[in-house]
Amino acid sequence: MINIRKLEADLWESADLLRAGSKLTSNQYCMPVLGLIFLRYAYSRFKLVEAEILKDRPVRRGRVMPVEASDFNEKAALYLPKMAQYAWLVNLPEDITSQNLHDIQGRTMSSLGEVVNNAVELVEQQSEQLTGVLPKDYTMFSDELLSELIRIFNNDALDDVGGDVIGRIYEYFLNKFAKNIASDDGVFFTPKSLVKMIVNILEPQSGVLLDPACGSGGMFIQSGDFVNQLGMSANSAMTFYGQEKVEYNAKLCLMNMAVHGLTGVIKSGDEANTFYHDAHNLNGCCDFVMANPPFNVDKVKSESAQSAGRLPFGLPGVNAKTKEISNGNYLWISYFYSYLNEVGRAGFVMAASATDSQGKDKDIRQKLIETGHVDVMISVGNNFFYTKSLPCSLWFFDKGKPAELQDKVLFIDARNYYTVVDRTLNEWSEWQLKNMNAIVWLYRGQVDKYKGLLAEYRSALGADASFEEALSQLKVELKDLQKRAKIETEAANRKDKKRIQAEYDELIAAKNEEITVAKEAVWLYEKFGEGEYQDILGLCKVESRAVIIEEKGCSLTPGAYVGVAPVEDDGIDFEKRMAEIHRELLSLQAESNYLMDTISANMKEMGL
């Protein structure tokens, strides 16, 4: 089976080398490259649906009736005319002029860029949602460069793993471009682990979902996946609405949705500025609201915001002189609450400072707490965003909370619970997401879901032993693998050494992944056993509204409630370890001095 992660990385490396060679910026390169991936995805879907249609196709005079656009419409799929099909683009000869090709306006095409632009226009003719969305600036590439890009995304491995994987490839590229493009005043990408946490806790299954700061559409994609994994059709069960002030990001959102097979209504530009407009007239109508709004926005016109409504708890603090709101965080918080219907749920990312801000913010927060609809609060540590190292928090509202939870709020402090991706980026792994979700399940009394997760761990580890025993056994197996790798690699001849090392590296990496799963199983089971919620010092605490308001001054900061976990004694003698580190440092310094002397002597011999 093909390694999807390696495929993603290989495709990115190839395309990014071309980007560097073209001297285009990431911003210029992003949309055209994503557009090509979209065309490749559309073709994969086209071929799958075409094969399905042809199974029962009538035959006339010995010939199978050709497929038509209406056949695809019946299956909610995109029909592609021949000149929009990726295979046709790939097989074009170098000399475009010699082919005497004409675009949809009847003009003769003389470059590959014109041919791809025409393919995009043909696709847009098939989908109202995509009209004016896909990039049509492929003439900025040389034919040679564009041909190479088309070839890169026609990797045979994509066919081996199936068309739906291109959705993942698209998402991977979008993430990579986000890291390159995003700046402090235009962040459009929400890290996937934050999105998944929001979706997992809200559990969208049917109804109206609004993201009033939708960026590239991550909330819609993840919600669609969640619904589809339940065995339902996301497009049938959910109605997606988005607002995005930056038109460039709104196009990314529509492309992202289309490449994942989702439809939605996305509005952009001035009419989609959520501070002043409810672009879809959804106030009080939403089953779900999800968002990652821009934090700490200043200079919001207070009169315009007030006249636009959606402020059930009043305006935040206003500068009397300028009539401006200096921080828009509590405008967003109020909007998210106001959009919900009588049983709606909201989940959103917010600046960490908003859980404790004072003045009018505190008054709004108290009114929110008094409703009984604040459900879960999660503190997130540093480095979860590509462009910001600051911590944030996840807020969850539930207007349909059961009576027994009306007086309670679950606080989770996850600032010290994450996986390090690299020096500047952290995330939650899939199992860490499940573990945090499990805490919420137990708070809600959904013990069956918790037990289902324990069963999933047991299945993944393939052992009937306790999680602790499974972890110990895996560590023994890892040491044995490492020992065998060393012996066999050293004993191998020069020709086989690299191959044997690579084989063992793969086995060791797989074993380390199993160990990671076992560690997360141990982490969860040590705290909650077979499924009984309890407050865990330094991690989670369920608190009453009275304590929050009267004793804690309306703070919604998890750290104010969960306390600090005791520091575990690792059994290491501090003085002894410091002495070892000092000896290691002296040894490294001596080695460094020796190397410097050797380099200097060699340079003298060379007359330098």
TrEMBL record:
Q: Which reaction does it catalyse?
A: a 2'-deoxyadenosine in DNA + S-adenosyl-L-methionine = an N(6)-methyl-2'-deoxyadenosine in DNA + S-adenosyl-L-homocysteine + H(+)
Domain N6 adenine-specific DNA methyltransferase N-terminal per the UniProt entry, residue ranges: 7-153
Q: Does the keyword Lipoprotein apply?
A: no
This protein's UniProt keywords: Coiled coil, Methyltransferase, Restriction system, S-adenosyl-L-methionine, Transferase
Known Gene3D superfamilies for this protein?
1.20.1260.30, Vaccinia Virus protein VP39 (3.40.50.150)
The record's annotation in InterPro entries points to: D12N6_MeTrfase_N, DNA_methylase_A-5, SAM-dependent_MTases_sf, T1MK-like_N_sf, Type-I_RE_MTase_Subunit
Instruction: Say which family it is in.
Output: Belongs to the N(4)/N(6)-methyltransferase family.
Output this protein's name. site-specific DNA-methyltransferase (adenine-specific)
Ranked from the top, the taxonomy reads: Bacteria, Bacillati, Bacillota, Clostridia, Lachnospirales
